Amino acid sequence: MSEAKHEAYGLEKVVQHAHARTRGDLTGALATYIPELARVDPERFGIALVSVGGEVVGVGDVEVPFTIQSISKALAYCLALEAAGRDRVLAHVGVEPSGDAFNAIVFDPHTNRPYNPMVNAGAITVSGLLAQALGAEAFDVLLDRFSAAAGRKLGFDEAVYRSEAETGHRNRGIAHLLKNAGALEADVDATLDLYFRQCSILVTASDLARMGATLASIGENPLTGATVFAVEAVRGTLSVMFTCGMYDFAGNWAFDVGVPAKSGVGGGILGVVNRQLGIGTYSPRLDTKGNSVRGIAAFRELAEELGLHIFDPTNRGSAMLGAFSR
Ligand SMILES: NC(=O)CC[C@H](N)C(=O)O
What we know:
Structural class: alpha+beta
Number of strands: 8
Low-confidence stretches: 1-8
Bound molecules: glutamine
């Protein structure tokens, strides 16, 4: 599409087209490791965009709540960089892509630390750092901060939390191995409790887009004006989202879509177009790596249509939204 045509169509039309072109892909499967995730409506599909100038576009099921799951890893890492400090966080969790599945039981052999905070081993270590730094208040602080990033008070799915806690033997195994390796200092049970709780926070595609916009505007929520995260923490978070956010699909994603992102097995993807846009998608059917099939397809379409790839010289996202006009 030419630039002129884009402007005539407007961003809403571009998003509508991305939704229409990708909604027919019914491949993939719901997560089934807990009954609550296997019960969600597989047809749901929403795409939401929020600019750093505060413009909002939503198409499809953008107000349907689902559990944030692994997308919490990105925001928890951002909070840990602040609460525990950069050096302490880096001493416990690396920043190298692992190339392994999200729940792999593998640590960096050079450091005996988890590879990065975007896979379970690293995220559990981050939850431990938060549990230590914030004590019994850790979950409340985390939920408040996630809520501030979304610009509204977020809820929590008690049933998902209970199921995660009851069935999370692999995560328990990982936590004990982290403790054995010295990467995890905090109490194993307190750490896992925080990890399972943070995975069970309820969000919508619109929330993810607003959270993304908060990261895109370097920590300030563009809709509320609140300063949610420190600049340094956002920089570190976006870096690991870019290199590790899509698990063992991260390289492919960086090549094709080219924006920092984080996915979760609840079906959400949060994407950040630096200094321009937050993008949130929801579609619960997952591919074999645990990423939303239609979410990936929608991001590919948007990246192509709007030139969102970090190295794409034809970026048109901000021009269309007037994102730099304020
Ligand atoms: N990839 C994910 O979203 C994984 C989250 C899930 N609760 C787990 O820890 O296994």
